Amino acid sequence: MVNPRFITLAAFVVAVAATRLLPHAPNFTPIAAMALFGGAHFANRPTAFALPLAAMLLSDLVIGLHAGMPFVYGAFAMIVGLGLLIRNRRTPLAIAGAALTGSIGFFLLTNFGTWLTGGLYPLTGGGLLAAYTAAIPYFAHTLTGDAFYTAVLFGGFALAQRVFPLLREEPAPAPAHG
C-alpha cells in the first residue's frame, strides 16, 4: 500500500532540493532546512538520513562535485540528527532553535573543511581564523535561507496536514498491560 504521508514528505524534499538548481544568492539554499525537515518528519531513521542526502547528491551531480563535500555532507548529517532530536516536539521554538544550531554547525564545519582542504589559507590558527572571517559575509545568506526554507517546509507541511488529515502521523500504539 502506498503511504500518502511518506510520498508527500519525499515530494517536499525532492522539490526543495530541486530549488538548488535555480539562481539564488550565495548560500541562500534549502539544504539545511531539507535535512532538518527530513530528520523531524520521516518515521524511519535510515530514511530520514538517506532521502535528503540522496536528493542533495542528485542536485550536486548537476551543480558539480567538489573537495569540500565530506564536510558539507557531514554537516548535513548533523542537521538531520538535530531533526531527529526535535521530532517529538516540533514547536516553533524547537524548530527555530534547531535551525539556528544547524546554521552555526554548518558554518563551522564547512569553513573548517575549506581551511583544511582548500589550499586558500595556511594550516595555522591564523589561517583558520582567516577562513572563518572571510566566510562571515556569506553567513547572513545562510541564516536567512535556512530560516526561509525551514518556515516553508515545516509550515507548508503543517498546513498540508490540516487540509489533508491522511498526512498526519499515526499515534504510536499504547503499550499492552498484562
Keywords for this structure?
mainly alpha, 6 helices, about 0% strand, elongated
Secondary structure elements and their pairing?
Elements lengths: L3 H15 L12 H11 L3 H19 L5 H18 L5 H26 L7 H39 L15
Helix pairs in contact: 1-2, 1-3, 2-3, 2-4, 2-6, 3-4, 4-5, 5-6
Please give a structural write-up.
By secondary structure, the protein is mostly helical. The chain is elongated, with a radius of gyration of 18 Å. The relative contact order is 0.16. It has one domain (4-20, 27-166). The longest helix is centred in the C-terminal third of the chain and has 39 residues, at 125-163. α2 packs parallel to α4 and α2 (31-41) packs across α6. It has helices at 4-18, 31-41, 45-63, 69-86, 92-117, 125-163.
Structural class: mainly alpha
Number of helices: 6
The rounded distance between the terminal residues' Cα atoms is 32 Å
Proportion in β-strands:
under 5%
Characterize the biggest β-sheet.
Answer: none
Tell me the Rg in angstroms: 18 Å
Q: Overall mean pLDDT score?
A: 92
Query: Roughly what percent helix?
Result: over 70%
- Element-by-element helix/strand order: HHHHHH
What's the short story on this structure?
By secondary structure, this protein is mainly α.
